[in-house]
Amino acid sequence: MDMNIETPEDQNEENSRRVQVRFKTKLKPPQKVPSNSIAIPSNLTRFGLSSVVNNLLQAVNPEWKSEPFDFLINGELVRMSLEQFLLAKGISAEKVLEIEYIKAVAPQKEEEPSLHDDWVSAVDGSNPGVWKAGGVCTHILEGHCGAVSSVNIIKSDVCFAACAGLKYVTVATASKDQTLRLWKVCSGSWDCTISLWRTNDSDAAGNQVSIKKRKGNNQVEEPQLEGEAISTLVGHTQCVSSVVWPQQETIYSASWDHSVRTWDVEMGKDLSDIFCGKALNCIDIGGEGSALIAAGGSDPILRIWDPRKPGTSAPVFQFSSHNSWISACKWHNKSWFHLISASYDGKVMLWDLRTAWPLSVIDSHKDKVLCADWWRGDSVISGGVDSKLCVSSGVSIQ
Questions:
Q1: C-alpha separations of 314 from 117, 271, 305, 309, 310 in Å
Q2: pLDDT tens for each residue of 243-282
Q3: Do 315 and 304 form a contact (C-beta atoms < 8 A)?
Q4: What gap in Å lies between CA 252 and CA 398, rounded to an integer?
Q5: CA angle at residue 127 from 123 to 129, to 5 degrees?
Q6: Backbone angles phi and psi of 9, in degrees to 5
Q7: So what's the pLDDT on residue 187?
Q8: Closest CA to 147 of 120, 183, 187
Q9: Contact 373, 126 (CB under 8 A)
Q10: Which residues of the chain have pLDDT under 70?
Q11: pLDDT value of position 181
Q12: Residues 295, 260 contacting (CB under 8 angstroms)
């Protein structure tokens, strides 16, 4: 049975042409609408489409509370009116148009920010157990005599205190005082090299590495390991600004020499180079098959490459909604499509590869944003020059 739906946008343009559509979704009841086709105005944008779907859901379930949706046609997110989209994509409006709806991907709540004494330059949200609610400080690690430029939770180095039932997580920090503390397995450096380190207290031959003692603020002596890098990867010609190690055998690095490099860990060799013409600040690996390379740097463009396509160094995606340099980028670890970027323009943007426009712009900071990451799968954390650590929660990733 066909139906005619009237919306506020329809009332504004009574003469708008109507198109026959059928809504479909992978969402479970009660978020499924009837499968029959309906006639809707062609001038509807995603906001009007969302109103239509919510009206249909309320007709089935009067207790339904409206929520925002996004819409896909042939696998691409709709970011203009239906009429404009069909015209741009060469899709006929004479047939019933199938439109898939999904939950809108945007933060639903801004948590209370955590204030620091100075810039927040690095953040890692990969271990939910380390963090508590926004605004709550659980640990302070002191010891560096220079700015901390990178922080990482070493996932493989987790131990338990049997007597107390407590769980300890090793955190690695890198600083402009030229030291690594709490031992990070991979580091990039201003001397243009990448160094590999061991995270236990033995070298390759099983010998103990030198251990020093220092007194912390609680006056308890804390062990500190001293050792040399077990391997150094040489090839970049300017400082290495970012390093990721997603697979055991492969390391990826970004540099101010305008290049993204892929390294064979065992051989210590540079496998491939991608040059983008801009100094790079950040890199991350994710997306389809955990194979796409995202990087940003000294212009407002977030670039994404697919190294599985040989013979070309051209990005497969470019996002250019920022107004200044990009400082951080991070893929969502459970989605092929979603990632975030942070910029000196003071904004964090949430992206979906299926559209060229950002899904959401997080404007929590009042100055340059220096770092960003996902937390708990449904929140975005970010830090910046305004000395705030901000948490934007309620992001629904399907």
A1: 41, 17, 7, 10, 10
A2: 999 998 999 999 999 999 999 999 999 999 999 999 999 9
A3: yes
A4: 27
A5: 115
A6: -65, -35
A7: 66
A8: 120
A9: yes
A10: 1-15, 129-139, 155-169, 182-185, 187, 199-227
A11: 72
A12: yes
In sequence order, which ranges of the chain are alpha helices (DSSP H)?
Answer: 8-12, 46-60, 82-89
Residues 6+ apart with CB under 8 A from 119: 147, 370, 383, 384, 385, 387
Q: Would you tell me how many other CB atoms lie within 10 Å of the CB of residue 360? A: 18
d(CA 47, CA 276): 37
Structure tokens at 157: 């180095």
In DSSP terms, 269 is beta-bridged to 264
The closest of 114, 61, 31 to 396, measured between CA atoms, is: 31
Q: Which residues of 209-234 are buried (b: 16+ CB within 10 A; e: fewer)?
A: eeeeeeeeeeeeeeeebeeebeeebe
Nearest of 373, 376, 398 to residue 150 by alpha carbon: 373
Q: What is the dihedral of CA 137, 385, 287, 151, to 10 degrees?
A: -50
pLDDT in tens, 178-198: 777 754 337 677 788 888 877
